[in-house]
Amino acid sequence: MLLTITTTHRPATDLGYLLEKHPAKCQSFPLSFGQAHVFYSVTREESCTAALLLDLDPIGLVRGRRGGDGPTLGAYVNDRPYVASSFLSVAIAQVFGSALNGRSRERAELATTPIPLKASLSALRCRGGEGLLRRLFEPLGYEVAATRSSLDERFTEWGPSPYFAVEVSGVRCLSELLSHLYVRIPVLDDDKHYFVGDDEVEKLLAKGEKWLPGHPQRDLIVSRFLKKQRRLMRDALERLMGDDDVDPEEKDEERRREEEAVEQKISLNEQRLGAVVSAVKAATARSVIDLGCGEGNLLRELIRDKELTHIVGVDVSPRSLEWAHRNLHLDDLPDRQRERIKLIQGSLSYRDERFSGFDVACVVEVIEHLDPARLPAFERVVFEFARPRTVVVTTPNCEYNVRFENLPAGRFRHRDHRFEWTREEFQGWASRVAGRFGYAVRIVPIGPEDPAVGSPTQMGVFTR
Ligand code: SAH
C-alpha cells in the first residue's frame, strides 16, 4: 500500500526536514507486520513528493495468530497488502512519529506552519462510499478527488470495486494532515487489525482533540475508530464533549440514521411504507394500530387516509413517542383530526387491552428488535389477545445484505437488531404463527428483487 505526500511550499525539499527523512535516501523500517520503505519520487525546489510504501507480510500476520480452526484461505489471500488500513496508520505513527506530533529538529517553525500539501492513497476502501469520504475530509477544508477502481479492468461487466484512489489537498500543517489521515483511514476502512482497548481512546483524543468535537461526522468517526465498542465510545465522547452532551438516546437516533444510510440507495423506507399502506387499504380498515411506531413515519401516511377514523401508535420508548408527537404536529391539528389519532406507551411483550379492537395492526421493522426469547410472548399479545382481522409484519431479508455496499459482511443493518432472518426463516416463522393462531399468511417482497438474494425487505400479511 502506498501513501505519497507532496508539497509545493518553497523550497519544497524542506519536506525532508519535516518528515526527518533525507530526500536523497531510500530507507527501510522493519515493523511487526512487514517493512515500511520511505523514498522520494520528486525532489525539486518547486515540488517534492515523499512516498511511504508499506510491504505487508500476510503470511507472517497469520502465523502469529492463535485460536479458531486455523487460518483459512481468506487469511492468506486478501486485500490487506494493497489497501490503506489501520496498518498504514500504525506505520505513519512509527515512521513519521515526530512529524505527526508537529516536531522537526531543523524546521521547528515550518512544522507548525500551514503549507500546501497533497496526500495520495493508491487504494482506500471507503465503506460508506465517496460521499462519506467527502463528508470526512471536506469539513476540514480539504479538496478531495476520488477515482473508483473497477473490480477487474479486463472484465468491465463485473462493475466497480469498493476501492478508490484518493487525493486530499489543502493548506495545513503537516502534523494536521498526518493526524487527519491517521484517524480517517481506519474509519473509512471500518476495520482494525489489532485489539482495540482503552489506549485507543487516548490515541483518538490525542489526534482528534482539535478538530473532532465540532466535526459533523464526530459520532461516526468515534464509533468506527473505536470499533463500535460502546463503553470506549462513551468514554471518548464524554471526554471530548463533557458529560452534558452525551445522550444515549441520541446514539439511537444516530444508529437509526446509519441504518437509513445503508438502505438509502433505493429509498427503501418509502417503498416499505407504500407497501404497508397498500395492505391497510386492501383490508378496507377503519381502525389501525401501529405497534412499535417509532417516530411516526407510518402514522404520518395513515393520517392522510380519510377512511381511517381511529389510528393509534404504540411504542416502548417515550422519547420516540415525543418525536412522533412533534413530527405529526399533533398540537397543531384541528380538534376533529386530533381525535382520530392517539399515541400510547406500551410494550409488545405484555398483554394490553388497549391493543384490542382494531381492524389492522402494523408491526413495521420491529420484530428484529425483540429478544428472540420474547417472540412467543409477542406472538400471543398480537395474534391471540389483540387479534385484529389483519396483521402486517415487515422485517429485513438478511440475504439481501450482501447487496448493500456500505454494510460490512456479517453485520446487521442496525446495531440494535437481535436477529435478521433469511426468506426461509421468515416464511417458516410466519407459517407457524398463522397456523397456531388461525390466520392465513401471504408473503410479499418489498424493494427491488434480486434473482439470487431476493428483495431487501419482506412483508407478511396475516388475515383471518
Ligand atoms: N415502525 C417504525 C420504527 C421501527 S424501529 C418505523 O418503521 O419507522 C423499532 C421500534 O420498535 C423502536 O421505536 C422501538 O422503540 C420499538 N420497540 C422495540 N421493542 C419494543 C417493545 N417490546 N414494545 C414496543 N415497542 C418496541
Structural features, described:
- By secondary structure, the protein is of the alpha/beta class.
- It folds into 2 domains: 2-194, c-terminal autoproteolytic domain of nucleoporin nup98; 248-463, Rossmann fold, CATH 3.40.50.
- It is 36% helix and 22% strand.
- It is built from 18 helices and 14 strands.
- It has helices at 15-19, 58-63, 73-76, 86-95, 97-100, 108-111, 129-137, 174-189, 198-208, 218-225, 230-241, 248-263, 268-282, 297-304, 318-327, 335-338, 375-386, 423-437, and strands at 2-7, 27-31, 34-43, 48-56, 115-125, 143-150, 160-172, 287-291, 310-315, 341-345, 360-364, 390-396, 440-446, 457-463.
- The longest helix is centred in the middle third of the chain and has 16 residues, at 174-189.
- It is elongated and about 80 Å long.
- The structure holds S-adenosyl-L-homocysteine.
- S-adenosyl-L-homocysteine is lined by residues 292-294, 297, 315-317, 320, 347-349, 364-366, 369-370.
